[in-house]
Amino acid sequence: MENSTSTKQLLETYYKGFAQKEGWESVISDDFKFIGGDMTKTAPIVGKAAYIEVIKRFSRVFQTMRVKEMIIEGENACVIGNYDYTFPNGVSINGDVAEIWKAKNGKLDALTIFFDTHTFDKNIPK
């Protein structure tokens, strides 16, 4: 149960900062692994700095976010996040993202996300 508590604390710190668009980075491991955005690419983006760059781009389109549900089992967690988006073309929507987490050695170590990529593709210019 100790891992569940620390994983929960890590996620609470992450999402509090993520919703404010600052202060979430402290709980991310240096060799963080991220998969998401393009399900045809199954190899993770590796490294804290690389993930920070992904989030800088994502932060331009999400206005607010809230955690709808969080299920934690040891160092593994599933979070359903709900986001309000405003795209560069002016379209605003609300949507859920399934976020699968792994914690390791007191840090968040990996994240795989699942969301409606079609809506993003049609509303974000290439």
Distance between the termini: 45 Å
Unreliably modeled segments: none
Overall geometry: globular
- Tally of DSSP β-strands: 6
From the alpha carbons, calculate the radius of gyration and give it in angstroms: 14 Å
Number of helices: 3
Structural class: alpha+beta
The description of the largest β-sheet is: 6 strands, mixed
The overall number of domains is 1
Spatial arrangement of strands, main beta sheet: 2-1-6-5-4-3
Strand content: 35-45%
GO molecular function: isomerase activity
Keywords: Isomerase
Protein name: Ketosteroid isomerase-like protein
Domain SnoaL-like: 22-108
Please outline the helices and strands:
Elements (H helix, E strand, L loop, with lengths): L1 H19 L7 E8 L9 E2 L1 H12 L2 E12 L2 E11 L5 E13 L2 E8 L2 H7 L3
Description:
This is Ketosteroid isomerase-like protein. The chain contains 3 helices and 6 strands. With 126 residues, the chain is an alpha+beta fold. It has one domain: Nuclear Transport Factor 2, Chain: A (Roll), CATH 3.10.450. The protein has a 6-stranded mixed sheet with strand order 2-1-6-5-4-3. A hairpin with a 2-residue loop joins strand 3 (62-73) and strand 4 (76-86). It starts with a helix and ends with a helix. The model has no long low-confidence stretch (mean pLDDT 90).
Compose a concise summary of this entry.
This protein is of the alpha+beta class. The chain has helices spanning 2-20, 48-59, 117-123; strands at 28-35, 45-46, 62-73, 76-86, 92-104, 107-114.
List keywords for this structure.
3 helices, 30% helix, 6 strands, Nuclear Transport Factor 2, Chain: A, alpha+beta, 6-stranded mixed β-sheet
